[in-house]
Amino acid sequence: MAEAGRRSKRALAVTLAAALAIAGCGSGAGDDGPRTLKLWHYEGPDSAMGVAWAEAVKQFESTHPGVKVAFEEKGFEQIQKTAPMVLNSNDAPDVLEYNKGNATAGLLSKQGLLTDISDEVTKRGWDKQLSPRIQTTARYDEQGVMGSGKWFGVPNYAEYVKVFYNKDMFAQQGIAVPATLEELTAAMDKFVAAGVTPLAVGGAEYPAHQIMYQLALSKADKDWVDRYQRYTGKVDFHDAAWTYGARTFADWVDKRYISKDSAGVKAEDMGVSFMQGKYPIMISGTWWYGRLAAGIKDFQWGSFLWPGLTAGSAGNMWVVPQGSKNKDLAYDFIAITMSPQIQDKLRDAGGVSLVDSGTAAASPQIQELTENFKTLSAQDRLAFYPDWPAPGYYDVQVFAVQKLITGTATPQQVLDELAKPYQENLANVGK
C-alpha cells in the first residue's frame, strides 16, 4: 500500500513536471524586472475550487521564480455584469474564471474580447483530456454559438444539479429517499402536512429558474435541449415541456413547497438556511458540496440525482482576455490547474474533477459525486443551464420566475417573457 502510494506520487510529479516543461517554466523575471500574473476567479476560499486554485497558485509561484500572482476574488454576479466593460479596458486580468455558454463566453468571443487558444489547447493536450461533450462549452463559432469552432476557454471542473436532503428531517417524517419526481412530490406533501416548508430556494438569483428548468427537463429529450441551447431547430416556449415546467413551479408555490418569501432570497442565503437545518430539501448544484460538507455539523445529510435529464456540464472555465499582458503565464497556470495533482485536490475537497488520475477519492461520498457525473455524462443526460442561450438572459430568467413565486404573472405570461429575448437573439445570430 505504501509503495503504491509512492509510485502514485511519483507519477503525479512526472505528469506535472511534463506539463510545466511544455509550458516553458523559464518565463519568470523578464528583461523589465519581475512579472505578475493577474488572476480573477469567484470561488470562495472554502469551496472545492477555491481550495484547489489556492494550491495551484502556490505551485505556480514555486515553479516560476520571480513571478507573483496577484489574485482578486470577484463575485459571480459582479463578473457576469461587468466582464465586457472590464475586458475591454487596461484593467483586464491575464486569466480569469468565466461562465460558459452563448450568453457569456460566446458573446465575449464574438466581440473579440477573448483569446483564441486553439493552438495552445492542442499543444498542451487539453483536447485529449476533455471529452467531446465537455468540449461543447469551450468552443464557439463566429456567431458565438457553443459546440463548434475555435477554443476560447478551458473547462477546469464539472458540475450538475442534484437534490440535497436533510436525512434527519426525512427520518422524522418516515420518508424514504425519492427515486422519481412523483416520490419527491409525495415527500414534500408530507412535510407541508407537518408544517414544514420543504424547499430552500433562492428566488433572487439562479436557484429558482434552475428548478423550473429541471421541471421542464422532466418532459424533454436531448433534441429539445439542443434546439434550445444550440439553435439546432425551432423552439416553442409553450410546448409540453416548458408549459409543464412553468405550471408545476407555480403549483409548487401554491402547495407551499416553496415560500413566497423566497423571491427575495439570494443563493448564498438559501445555502446557509439549508446548512442551518431550516429546510429538508435544496435543489441546486454540486458546487455546494464542499460548503455543505464543511458547514453542516448538527445533522446528517445526503444527495440524490434528479430523475432523467439534469442541468449540468463542464463547470466554469479559464479564459484568457485578448488584452492579457502575460498570456504565456496564463497558459502555464491553466496547465497546473489541469494536472492530476490539482484535480485530485479539487475532487477531495468536494468538487467534480475532469481529469482522472486513477487514484481513489478521499471518501465514499466524494467518490459517489464523481461517479454520478460519469453516469450523467455517459448517458448523455447533461442539459446545460437555462440562462445560456442569449445575452442578458440570466436577468430575464431571474425576474420572470420571481413572478411565479410572488404570483404577479401567470405561467403563460412568464413563458412569453422568456420567449421574446430568445427570439430576438436568434435573429441576431442568423439561425
UniProtKB/TrEMBL annotation:
InterPro entries: Bact_solute-bd_prot1, SBP. Keywords: Signal. The keyword Signal applies. Residues 1-29 form the signal peptide. The keyword Signal applies. PROSITE patterns: PROKAR_LIPOPROTEIN. Pfam families: SBP_bac_1. This is Sugar ABC transporter substrate-binding protein. It comes from Lentzea aerocolonigenes (Lechevalieria aerocolonigenes).
